[in-house]
Specification:
Adhesion/Biosynth-related, FAS1_domain, signal, FAS1_dom_sf, 7 helices, FAS1 domain, 2 domains, Fasciclin domain-containing protein, alpha+beta, seven-stranded mixed beta sheet
């Protein structure tokens, strides 16, 4: 009787350990497969990625961010200031440009262009001053122009701004290309 009870206890312990190991491995696989952007939170303020994803005017931007593997980076704590070109802004580029940039062999070039739209600080539109030069994530600078018509970054007009949990999204009417 004692042997049967001991045998049942050992079997139960082994099954519990196997079950725990499986759960841990499943959790690790999920963690590896998805980054910060996959966290579901309908209560908190949206991060810059979720602001873009939620905008019907930024589907091309979201597609390019995914192709360049920048979604996870921009979903992190930041802070970021993102100049987000609209779909119409991407349509101003020469025909075939976006399709060409989306090819895997152009991933680095696409990432450079997109990083030219990001600053590692959270700056509201009223921070920018006429003639101000500021550094972008790609290592190059942009120049701001402030006029009665609005605020421009390297010629792209800021047409709207949204505060995000990890910075600011400034909607722009043109794609800002590095020089």
């Amino acid at each position: 009787m004692r042997t049967i009870a001991l045998s049942i206890l050992i079997s139960a312990s082994l099954l519990a350990c196997q079950s725990t190991e499986t759960s841990t491995n499943d959790s690790e696989e999920v963690a590896v497969a998805a980054g910060q952007e996959s966290v579901v939170d309908d209560v908190s303020e949206k991060d810059v990625v979720k602001v873009a994803v939620g905008s019907p005017d930024h589907t091309t931007l979201v597609t390019t961010l995914k192709a360049a593997d920048l979604v996870t980076s921009l979903a992190n704590a930041g802070p970021f200031t993102v100049f987000a070109p609209t779909n119409a802004a991407f349509e101003k580029l020469p025909a075939g440009t976006v399709d060409g940039l989306l090819k895997s062999e152009n991933k680095d070039k696409l990432a450079d262009i997109l990083q030219h739209h990001v600053m590692t600080s959270a700056l509201a539109v009223d921070f920018f001053q006429d003639g101000q030069s500021m550094g972008m994530v790609d290592g190059t600078n942009v120049i701001f122009k402030v006029t009665p018509e609005g605020v421009f970054v390297d010629g792209a007009k800021i047409i709207g701004s949204v505060k995000a949990s990890n910075g600011w999204v400034h909607v722009v009417d043109s794609v800002i290309l590095p020089k």
